[in-house]
Amino acid sequence: MAENVTPKPCMGFWRTWALGVGMMIGSGIFMMPALLAPFGGLGLMSILVTGGGTLLIALMLSRLTKVIPKVGGPYAYAREGLGDFAAFLTMWGYSLSIWTAVAAVAVGFVGYLDVFVPGLAADPLGSLAVSLSLVWAFVALNIKGVQESSSFQLITTILKILPLLLIGGLGFFHQGVDYMPEVNPTGGNPLSALSAAAILTMWAFVGIECATIPAEDVIEPEKTIPRVLFWGAVTVTLVYLVSTFGVMLVVPAEVLATSTSPFSDAATAVMGPFGAKFVAIGAMISMVGALNAMVLVGAQTPMAAARDKLFPLSFAKMSRNGTPLFSLIVLGLLATVLLLLNYTKGLRGAFEFLLLLSTLSVLIPYAFSAVAELVLLRKVGKAAPLQTTLLSLAAFVYTTWVIAGSGYETVFWGFILLLAGMPVYAWLHVHVTEETQGEVAE
After folding, report:
1. 280 by DSSP, 3-state: which?
2. Does residue 177 lie within any of the structural domains?
3. Residue 7, in any domain of the structure
4. What's the whole-model pTM score?
5. What is the largest distance, in Å, between two alpha-carbon atoms of the chain?
6. What is the pLDDT of residues 63-122, one digit of tens each?
7. Radius of gyration of the chain, Cα coordinates, nearest whole angstrom
8. How many domains does the chain have?
9. How does pLDDT run across 162-206, given as a tens digit for each residue?
10. What are the helix and strand counts (H, E) for the chain?
11. Could you say which of 28, 37, 84, 401 would form a disulfide bridge with 257 (CB–CB 3.0 to 4.6 Å)?
């Protein structure tokens, strides 16, 4: 095993774009039309609002990438602007949330596979075997190399977008304006309804930051990543808007509001009985693409922290293919433990609790990145442009609104998770320092 292999950059615009878009488009889109149905036209407008907020974050990350094109993305930005402790908290919460999400997506995949293998979801051992096989298959793919992983990511991202656009597009020609949603069917204050709808859509946009994380694998990252962030945000906004609007035109609002599978209902209406299976295939492709992206970035962030002596040095060890071997294996083992919790009677509650605990942590990097940019602007010798300062503040305000909208319980347990990281940081500070001194002595 080689410990200091520097990988040759192999990710151009499209592969990096696929990583960011593939991370954002996961399972959330498949319930979006049902969640927004009670809000009608304002629900569609909320997609534009959250898409605009995501674009603010994308522009902020773009500016930081041009100045700090380092592996780790938000972790690297927090370290440069706010110091080691803020960087550790960013890495700690984000890595835990990604590791937990890997297990959650593997469980979700089994639910859609049950359409083709009836009874699978009800069989704990069978479900566990499929979930574990899926996780370790992507661990193996990412160990093999970033080039192979990013090629797979590009294919799955294209394949997951096409069904969504197809179903949405067919909706525009199926029923015409018969089911055109009302502008504000709630009858209440439009701004309040718009805000409530936006809170429901914002989670489907989380994940754009992952395009910044494997910076050393990206060709000309200071140029490529900013373009990817902008066009990635635009792509996802348009896909969500077209697909959700199309479904609303096919399925009556009162039916859509209570639907447990809105895209399946729409696909059945426009494609016949095969529609439900078509959507299940699309959902599985969507999930494996998101899972691959999670495995890739879930190993890179701890690797970056280990290089900076903020995490055990073993996480910085690279394979002969230039991939973070130890970090990937640990990710697979942690996902395995979580899957065992999920499929063990009496322990599923622990798995669901861990999901809740880590939900907020994926948003923390946005907040730290926004603050880091404001600090870095002050460190520059000359006065920062007013426009840049305002955009940084706007990104921070939007992130704060998203965090507040995630709910009291999520915020509470997310805060507890960050507090739990403090003694871990203190222990690691001593342990890694001793480990480093030992290596120097040798």
Report:
1. helix
2. yes
3. no
4. 0.87
5. 77
6. 999 989 999 999 999 999 999 999 999 999 899 889 888 988 888 888 888 888 888 888
7. 22
8. 1
9. 989 998 888 888 765 567 778 878 788 888 888 888 888 888 888
10. 17, 0
11. 37
